Structure formats: C-alpha cells, structure tokens
Amino acid sequence: MPDPKPIHVGPDGTKFRYIGSATTTPTTDTSIKVITVYPETMCPNMTNEEFAKTVMRLRDVAVKLTSTRIANLNRWNADDRAEAIEWFGSDSEEVRSTLLIGLPQISRVLSSLKPSNFVRLSEISSRNLSCDASATNGNTTAAVCKPDTETHTIAIGPNFCEMPDEKKNFDTGQALDGDSKLLTLIHEVSHFNDTMQTGDTWYGIANSRRKAKAGGSIPISTADNIASYVVFAKRGKS
C-alpha cells in the first residue's frame, strides 16, 4: 500500500512529511508566529532539490560576473568606458562612482543567498513580501520588497521557472540578449535598499540598451540596465 504521507523536499533541501493542516490558534492569541512549510514545489518543472542547485549555481555565476565588473571599474580603460556608455549612456565619474558603491553591495547580498531566501510567488506571498501587492500578478517573474534588508526574500513566479538558466553563446561564453534566470536574479537583488535601490522604469536587455543610448540619468537607476551590465561582463567559455 503506498504511503499516504510521502516525503517532500523543501527548496533548502530539508526533507519533511506532510501531515495535514488545521487552525488551532485561538483568535485571542495576538502573538506573532513564523511557520515555514513547503506544500508545493517552487517550480512545476523541477524538484525543489533541482531548484536549489540551479539558483545556487547561478548565484555563484552572478557573484563572479559582478566581481569582473568591479575590476573593470577600477581599471577604467577605453573598453570599460565604452561598456558603461552602452548600458548607462555615460562614462562620467558619477556613473562610475555609483557602480563602485553599488556593485559590491549587490555582490554581498548575492553571496549571502541560500535556497531558503526563495519563496514561491502566491497571493499570500505577494501581500506579505511585496511593498505594493498590486504590482504583482500571474505574469510576474519574481518580486522583492525593497526595504527587506533583513531577509532578502525573493518570490519566484512560474515565468522564472520556464526561463533558460542563462542566455549565452556556448562557444564563447558571452551573454546574448534575452531574459534568463541569471538576469532576473541580479535584477531582483539590485532592488534592495541596501544594494542599489533600482526601479523598473522599463524592462528588457535590448530596450535597456536603447534607453541608455537616448541618454538621461534613469538608466543607472534601472534594474535591467544594472543586471544587463553585469551579465554582459566579459567571460571565458564555461
């Protein structure tokens, strides 16, 4: 006879057995309780163990690319300046300084991420984790709450699960235009108030490049411009 209460695995690799659910807390109890459960997989197309391995691998890639960009900014040769112009429309000292301050903070938060920092996006998590729940819907790829500098929780939507891990030329290792889990991870981390406090003025790699070419001060504070700049850092074949 099959076990009616199978073993499940949470996104952090923790094994648990689903027993059931019931409301037992009296309405007069106003104390705050934190209960962590994993009733469903993070992504319908992979197990939670696979999800955890994927996001941790991409976290490491993101940290490495961010470190490359920080080195570029410290070197600041003609090629480095040209890439800043490509993504931010300027190679000014203000742009450089903003990146030199912000990218190490993005790297710090990326390095601290564990599978337990990720939750499945739902109506409940949208209300609890997003500062503006109305900004999330069924098409939301991922979401964070900017002031959440204590837990750096990232809510993952179904679209994230369907994205390729990376968009790159596998012969050269260089990034290609297009959405990916890697781009999304950096994008979301850039939003936090203790990193770069970026906004979502527009979306898309190609669009970010066009907006930068048009000039103005907005690209340096837009999440996809920051994420694209990092993802397109020069790297070898991997």
Please, could you describe this protein's structure?
It is a single chain. It is globular, with a radius of gyration of 20 Å. The protein has helices spanning 48-75, 78-88, 93-112, 123-129, 158-162, 181-191, 205-214, 223-231, and strands spanning 7-9, 15-17, 118-120, 142-143, 154-156. The protein has a 3-stranded mixed beta sheet, with helices on both faces. Helices cover 42% and strands 6% of the residues. A hairpin with a 5-residue loop joins strand 1 (7-9) and strand 2 (15-17). By secondary structure, it is mainly α. It is built from 8 helices and 5 strands; from the N terminus they run E-E-H-H-H-E-H-E-E-H-H-H-H. Helix 2 (78-88) packs across helix 7, helix 2 runs antiparallel to helix 8 and helix 6 (181-191) crosses helix 8. 32% of the residues are buried.
